[in-house]
Amino acid sequence: MGIFSRRQSATLEPAPVAGPAVPPPPAGAAPLDPALRALTGEWTIDRPHSRIGFSVRHAMVTTVRGAFTDYDSTLYFDGARPSQSRAELAIRIDSVDTGVEQRDAHLVGRDFFDARRWPQMVFRSTSTVHEGGESFRMAGELTIRDVTRPVELQLDYLGSVMDPFGFERAGFDGTTTIDRTEWGLVYNQRLKTGGTMVSEKIRLQLDISAIRAGATAAV
Prior knowledge:
The chain is mainly beta. 5% of the residues lie in helices and 45% in strands. The protein is built from two helices and eleven strands. Strand 7 and strand 8 form a beta hairpin.
């Protein structure tokens, strides 16, 4: 999320740059791929080709995976000065989907998210750092159940392409791990053999295909 993500691969087709030249990056900054600099602008997550997912250990022996399917996004990527990039993601809790209706109902209920009282979780970025090559680190604030705490996303740029419908796309993968109890998600059950039914550590996985905002498909 940090900004975008992959899930599809394609051959890069650089777009011509119009208007005034993009200013050079600040002194000492890691060199940027010209293709990255050409991505500067507003973007929107293409939900049918993206995934806001999570995974958690269950009963100490397996992993349950799920995703949130309904959300709004505001994204701005600055390929010349990544520190100016920003992102906001508002996720509707009741869109959680783990493939099991009973489990989803438990997650949106009072034991976990309590979606009636707090129907959304929100991520807002606070800073973005280019770590070199195609790697970025985006810090931000994540709000769940009216609790706001800092998080940090590792982002990997996957490329950009003009798709067959005339839309410019860019892809990034984003990952981070959080402790759910820091947001008040403390429900659990102890196992007789030791450990708990649900891990406190949650891995967030953002596979986001982004489309340039305001783009019009080529005729």
